[in-house]
Amino acid sequence: MEQTKDDRLLELAQFLRSRRERLAPERVDLPDGGRRRTPGLRREEVASLAGVSVDWYTRLEQGRDIQVSTQVLDNIARALRLSVNDRRHLFHLALKQEPLGQQTTRPVVPPALQRFLDLQEAAPAFVVDPTITVIAWNKAASAIYGDYAAMSELERNSVWRTFMSPSMRELLREGWEEHARRQLARFRAGYGRFVGDPWWTERIQEWTRSSPEFRQWWPDRDVLYSPEGKKLIYHPIAGKLAFENVSFQSSENPDLQIKVSTPLPDYDTANKIRRLIAERE
Fold first, then answer.
1. Residues 6+ apart with CB under 8 A from 179
2. Dihedral over alpha carbons 173, 176, 177, 182 (to 10 degrees)
3. What is the reported pTM?
4. Is 16 part of any domain?
5. Rounded Cα distance, 222 and 67, in Å
6. 103 in any annotated domain
7. DSSP for residue 133
8. What are the pLDDT digits (tens) for 39-53?
9. Tens digit of pLDDT for each residue in 216-233?
10. Which domain holds residue 49?
11. Is the residue at 48 inside a domain?
């Protein structure tokens, strides 16, 4: 548990520094002060804007174990002009919320939730756990993205599929980078709750070694909690398919997220999916 605490503090320190270095002085009505040795604001400038001492803020950015109140966190978020996603991530890290613990089995999907997925018919629908691993799906999802029942747990992880699977790059084509960055930002947002957990640590190390894009973008520390909007899929049999995505949490288990891709009228998407499902049966 001590290692988890140290990892969390280090992640908090690096996150704060990355956001400070992104913020130009003119955005907070400060003169640039001539040549700066590093990009963005200086620590003393952030401390002044947040109403805390330079020494205290410096220790926070160094990953020191210090007490921090919600009011001070809110002041820092305002000083750094954090987005809603970044502010939420800051609070996850700084308030040292305990990780949910190592799970040896995936959460169980209630039968009622599976029935909900099945009733979506031509709309690909999934349930994902906090690691963004697909743990339940409907026929439309398998018709578009492959036979989930035949996949390993790792292959059903959305981040792994995005960065490691050539088929996903082909399905998304020119939209792959935007999709990949959004998936990575969601994964980073979830990581805020699990810093130091062995599963997350091992996957991050593995994907950093295996994927040049993951390796390049992970240090950006972008976070995202909102769902994707519209998405275009290039299916090898059905051709172009257009979707609008929505997601929401399960009322029975808030750690489960339901994702539904609603077919748009473009490209006759719904009818194409119905034909794909019929051909698989």
1. 162, 172, 228, 231
2. 160
3. 0.74
4. yes
5. 25
6. no
7. B
8. 789 899 999 999 999
9. 999 999 998 766 778 999
10. 2-94
11. yes
- Note the helical H segments in the chain: 2-22, 43-50, 54-61, 70-79, 84-94, 111-118, 139-145, 158-164, 166-172, 176-191, 198-210, 212-217, 269-280
Q: Phi/psi at 211 (nearest 5 deg)?
A: -120, 120
Fill in the amino acid letter for 92. Answer: H
Largest CA distance in the chain: 69
Given a cut of 50, the residues of the chain with pLDDT beneath it are: 1-3, 97-104
Question: Which residues are registered as beta bridge partners of 157?
Answer: 133
Distances (CA, A) of 177 to 115, 163, 221: 33, 10, 16
Single-letter amino acid code for the residue at 142: S
CATH of the domain at 23: 1.10.260.40
Verify that 161 and 130 share a domain, yes or no: yes
Please indicate, yes or no, whether residues 133 and 237 belong to a single structural domain of this protein: yes
160 falls within a domain: yes
The pLDDT of residue 160: 97
Q: Is the sign of the CA dihedral 148, 154, 159, 163 positive or negative?
A: negative
- Render 60-98 in DSSP notation, one character per residue: HHTT------HHHHHHHHHHTT--HHHHHHHHHHHTTPP
Strand partners, 231: 243
Our CA dihedral for 70, 73, 74, 75, rounded to 10 degrees, sits at 130
Whichever domain contains 229, its CATH number is 3.30.450.180
What's phi and psi for 127, nearest 5 deg? -120, 130
- Helical pair 70-79 and 84-94, crossing angle rounded to 10 deg: 140
**CA–CA distances in Å: residue 129 to residues 106, 140, 159, 266:** 8, 20, 12, 30
Phi-psi region of 256 (alpha: psi -120 to 50; beta: other; left: phi over 0): beta
